[in-house]
């Protein structure tokens, strides 16, 4: 690399490059760092043990080619993701566990899925498109498209825009 990196923007009169922003994100945002290292593949597994990077608390144990675009992990502390496939626009919060039970195959998650804080999604199940899983809900069965699942007794409370009460 020759000379000064191309300027990306300024902050308080200081020229900022894309490299500066990447370094900032790597050091201070664990969610960004974890997803970046996962996308690096084998090299990411080596880089995560560098002493200058703070401890990683977001574990993504799946191939990056099985994750579609638009993945957002807010407050990615204590998050474990081990799914077969994740569709577009997946969004989850802290303390979420997505994984397997007795079979080695994890859940298949559709497009536009939201998972609230503390939720658990386990087993070889299929989560449909446009599904909202509320905080602390435990999901071990297939969920249809366009539904909302809440904690109290873990039940579906909304299905295709209509209020329902279906126990899981």
Q: State the helical fraction.
A: 10-25%
CATH superfamily of the largest domain: Hexapeptide repeat proteins
Cα shape: elongated
Number of H- or I-type helical stretches:
3
Strand content: 25-35%
Report the CATH architecture of the largest domain. 3 Solenoid
Ends: how far apart? 57 Å
Topology, pairings included?
Elements: E1 7-11, E2 14-17, H1 18-28, H2 30-39, H3 42-47, E3 58-60, E4 72-73, E5 79-81, E6 85-86, E7 91-92, E8 97-99, E9 108-109, E10 114-115, E11 120-122, E12 126-127, E13 132-133, E14 138-139, E15 147-150, E16 155-159, E17 162-167
Parallel strand pairs: 3-5, 4-7, 5-8, 6-9, 7-10, 8-11, 9-12, 10-13, 11-14, 13-15
Antiparallel strand pairs: 1-2, 15-16, 16-17
Helix pairs in contact: 1-2
Key attributes of the depicted protein:
UDP N-Acetylglucosamine Acyltransferase, domain 1; 2 domains; 7-stranded mixed β-sheet; 168 residues; alpha/beta; 3 helices; elongated; 5-stranded parallel β-sheet
Question: What is the structure about, briefly put?
Answer:
The protein has three helices and 17 strands.
Tell me what the structure shows.
The chain has 168 residues and is α/β, with parallel strands linked by helices. The chain folds into two domains: 1-56, no CATH class; 57-168, 3 Solenoid (UDP N-Acetylglucosamine Acyltransferase, domain 1), CATH 2.160.10. It is 16% helix and 31% strand. The protein contains three helices and 17 strands. It has a seven-stranded mixed beta sheet, with no helix packed on it. It has a five-stranded parallel beta sheet with strand order 3-5-8-11-14. It has a three-stranded parallel beta sheet with strand order 6-9-12, with no helix packed on it. A hairpin with a 2-residue loop joins strand 16 and strand 17 (162-167). The longest helix has 11 residues, at 18-28. It is elongated and about 55 Å long.
